[in-house]
Design goal:
single chain, 512 residues, mainly alpha, Alpha-Beta Plaits, two-stranded antiparallel ribbon, 10 strands, elongated
């Protein structure tokens, strides 16, 4: 009964997670479904590391306190009963025959946690890279879900290409249903999608080596909850009827260790209670007790090494040439409402939610545009998509406040960059060909791109009336629609750079 109850709980939370993930999409003009950021809001690791890195008093109250309270009472119930990545790992483990004897590397995740906490104290925020909820959302949003969308589209394209009326009519109804339920509003495409997907599938594939490999040995959130669970009231007890058969070890989701009670590692128990179900002697029981569990022994040298490594990572990450120049990187265009770069990096969880809800697909995961610290943070790539003038969805889904919530009136005053024209590639300037696309699509109430009437001469001496575009430095907000719509293929004739962004006093074309 307990096993079935736990499986039902995992299934329900996974379905809720996937439902909220699908709802994290535009439902109309600046309207959003219930975002999956609810899970991130309840993430104790992101809550703690963001509070440490930013010294933010407003982060003291959080849904994460509910998870912390539940852990203090019942142990790592979140890992065994609610975590979506844990549920996916359990499903993957059923597909293979993982080894039954644990490797025993459980200390590794605690050392990773110490590294992250030490770095966070010194204002580096590495938790988003390995936090299980952030990792899962990022992987699904930027790789798995787009791959699913393109695969479904390919199947229906093949059906339409067959030109069989019966199949075509049936597929139309099915495709319409899918568009209303699980398919995205637009076909998503993201840089690094293959790498992110391979990384996620690799984590899932580790279950073929050992069940819940990620959860047992790598998950820093599980390590944090494991530390908190030391004081949990729900504990396991073993009666004298135990004959040491090892059935409980084979079924244990956490790989806790010896059969006997004195060797039981409470910090590794995910409260699956499988040992209670499978014990042939009915010697295992779970009940409430105030007895304090044994302290976790990580080894003094390992602890010191992890903390020192976390502290040393901060200057090492920030002394690279990429990081030194990132404030002036012309391609580092952040979403509207993004905090100043240093504060933005301290908060961004690299979860990918802002990229998922971007209406045009312009928000892409950064590689090294913002230095190693800015890996997988959002940047606007205007050649792919522009920032919709009335859209504020990215600020609505950000779980850590790295992107502020703005109303449309506030957003209209925010500059994320500046458009600049390349006369050598612009059709009216260089070739005498009339073109006013950039001015036509400019969304600002008073056009930020204005036109100068001029006369161009062809090689034969014929005069052609053209209108040469110019950018108004005060009116341009850097939305990038001019670059997206520019008809010049390859490198466009007008590009947006981060110059002039509202969030920086230094990254300006004209200082003072």
């Amino acid at each position: 009964m307990l096993r079935n109850l736990r499986r039902a709980s995992q299934g329900i939370f996974l379905l809720i997670f996937l439902y909220l993930f699908l709802q994290t999409e535009s439902k109309g003009a600046n309207e959003l479904g219930y975002p999956v950021k609810i899970f991130l809001d309840a993430d104790p690791l992101l809550w703690l590391t963001t509070a440490l890195a930013t010294r933010s008093p407003e982060r003291l109250l959080s849904l994460a306190l509910i998870i912390i309270a539940a852990t203090a009472l019942l142990g790592r119930v979140f890992c065994g009963w609610a975590c979506p990545l844990g549920a996916l790992n359990d499903l993957a483990a059923r597909l293979g025959h993982p080894r039954q004897r644990p490797l025993g590397w459980y200390r590794l995740k605690y050392l990773i946690l110490l590294f992250i906490l030490a770095a966070s104290v010194f204002t580096l925020q590495p938790a988003g890279f390995v936090d299980p909820l952030s990792l899962t959302i990022r992987s699904l949003a930027l790789s798995i879900y787009p791959a699913f969308s393109h695969a479904v589209s390919a199947v229906f394209d093949a059906i339409y290409a067959a030109q069989l009326p019966v199949l075509t009519d049936a597929s139309e109804a099915v495709y319409s249903l899918l568009k209303k339920t699980v398919l995205p509003f637009r076909p998503p495409q993201f840089h690094q999608a293959f790498f992110l997907g391979a990384l996620f599938l690799g984590i899932i594939g580790l279950n073929l080596v050992e069940r819940r490999f990620w959860c047992r040995y790598l998950c820093p959130l599980g390590a944090l909850l494991g530390i908190l669970s030391r004081w949990a009231l729900l504990k396991r007890s073993v009666s004298e009827g135990c004959d040491g058969c090892g059935a409980c070890m084979a079924s244990c989701r956490g790989g806790m260790g010896p059969v006997a009670e004195d060797g039981w590692k409470v910090s590794e128990c995910v409260a699956c209670m499988a040992c209670d179900d499978v014990c042939p002697q009915v010697a295992v029981r779970f009940g409430f007790s105030r007895n304090k569990a044994r302290a976790l022994d990580l080894g003094r040298r390992r602890v010191v090494a992890s903390v020192v490594a976390g502290i040393a990572a901060v200057p090492l990450v920030r002394i690279t040439p990429l990081s030194k120049a990132m404030a002036a990187d012309p391609t580092l265009i952040r979403p509207p409402g993004a905090l100043p770069e240093a504060d933005f990096l301290r908060r961004c969880a690299k979860c990918g939610e802002c990229m998922k809800v971007c209406l045009t697909g312009g928000l892409q995961p950064a590689l090294l545009e913002g230095g190693f610290e800015g890996l997988w943070t959002p940047i606007l790539v205007s050649r792919i998509g522009y920032c919709e003038y009335r859209c504020t969805l990215c600020g609505q889904v950000c779980p850590t406040g790295a992107i502020k919530k703005l109303n449309p009136e506030e957003k209209a005053k925010v500059k994320i960059g500046l458009a600049m024209i390349d006369p050598g590639r612009c059709l009216p300037y260089s070739h005498g060909i009339p073109c006013i696309v950039c001015q036509e699509v400019c969304p600002t109430p008073k056009k930020a791109i204005w036109l100068e009437e001029a006369v161009a001469r062809t090689q034969s001496g014929k005069e052609v009336a053209v209108k040469k575009p110019h950018v108004d430095l005060e009116l341009c907000i850097g939305c990038g629609i001019c670059e997206t719509k520019c008809p010049v293929l390859g490198r466009p004739a007008i590009t947006v750079t981060s110059l002039g962004e509202s969030r920086s006093k230094d990254n300006q074309l004209l200082l003072g």
